[in-house]
Amino acid sequence: MSTRAQPIVVVHGGASEWYAGTSLGRAACRRAAQAGWEALAAGGGALDAVIAAVRVVEDDPACNAGIGSVLTSRGTLELDACVMDGASLASGAVAVLPPFRNPIDIARAVLEDGRYHLLAGDGAAAFARARGFAPCDPELMITPDRRAEFEGRGSFERGNTVGAVALDANGNLAAATSTGGMTGTIPGRVGDVPLVGGGTYADEHAACSCTGDGEAFARACAAFWTVEHVADGAQAAAERSVARVLERYGGYGGLILLDEAGDVGIARSASAMPHAIARSDGSVIDGE
Ligand code: ASP
Question: How, if at all, do strands 90-97 and 119-120 pair?
């Protein structure tokens, strides 16, 4: 564990062409990175930082997570989220979760409970209620654009999956990812996001959060592969991983990677993936 690393928070707002024409995704990521940074400044660890950051983008209707999530082929919400603590290698995830406002908080509750790595569907909902989380009225989470898209009143592409990685002052890393999945998939479909090593992974050397074609990223064990190759350099590992998912598994997308020295890797094969980086000097920069 390094004690020399400067704390840092990196957030992505998902791979989506729609972002190329708007600053909404970058703005959402900036707010999220700032929230993650404030969690660290308040004495929180990397886990607190990624949860705080992901909550902000889950609440942003531009993104496909929490409020603003895409709908299944039946017009329902099925939410996936995962969080992993690099120091302890503990993780928690939910999949096919019915509407709850911040799925990432329930993923954290699964991690803290400690018995399971992933809870799905009705069981995940029952666990959440038992932990004091209140189900949310679906109409409060389904945005007009998502409803119109489902009803065939046009294409209303919006933002996508959200994720964060953080390094705290003790040199600990964490990763978190949250999504509504992919538009119009059949109920029960689960992508890469809640799968440890698929869309989300963290250990003592690096943390990674992915977005994109979930089947491909899952088959590629993309987040794990990226973290395993971080010794190549964070940016090189990120680029190699995204290229590997595309060339070998046929999936487009992107990812963010953070290593124990605070070096960042950001790569995408999709045409846009807004992101933001909050550093210990107080700066927040964003990109696409
Ligand atoms: N990877 C997400 C999923 O498959 C969706 C995305 O990021 O585009 O559920």
Answer: parallel
Digit-coded pLDDT (tens) for 143-191: 998 998 888 886 666 789 999 999 999 999 999 999 999 999 999 999 9
- Which residue has tokens 């603590």? 85
Q: For the CA atoms of 190, 28, 241, 51, what is the dihedral angle to 10 degrees?
A: -60
Residue 55 lies in a domain: yes
CATH number for 259: 3.60.20.30
pLDDT tens-digit map of 73-92? 999 999 999 999 999 999 99
Whether 2 maps to a domain, the answer reads: no
Q: How many domains does the chain have?
A: 1
- Which atom of ligand 1 is the closest one to the Cα of 80? 9
Which residues carry out catalysis? 161
Handedness of CA 285, 199, 225, 44 (dihedral sign): positive
- Our answer on whether the CB atom of 212 is closer than 6 Å to any ligand 1 atom is yes
Which ligand 1 atom is at minimum distance from the Cα of 181? 9
Pocket of ligand 1 contains residue 179 by CB under 6 Å: yes
Radius of gyration of the chain (CA): 17
| Residue 262 DSSP label | -
Residue 200 lies in a domain: yes
Host domain of residue 181: 8-287
Q: Outline where 59-206 has alpha helix (H).
A: 103-113, 121-130, 138-141, 144-150
- Structural domain contains residue 1: no
pLDDT in tens, 202-243: 999 999 999 999 999 999 999 999 999 999 999 999 999 999
Residue 211 CA, ligand 1 centroid: distance in Å: 5
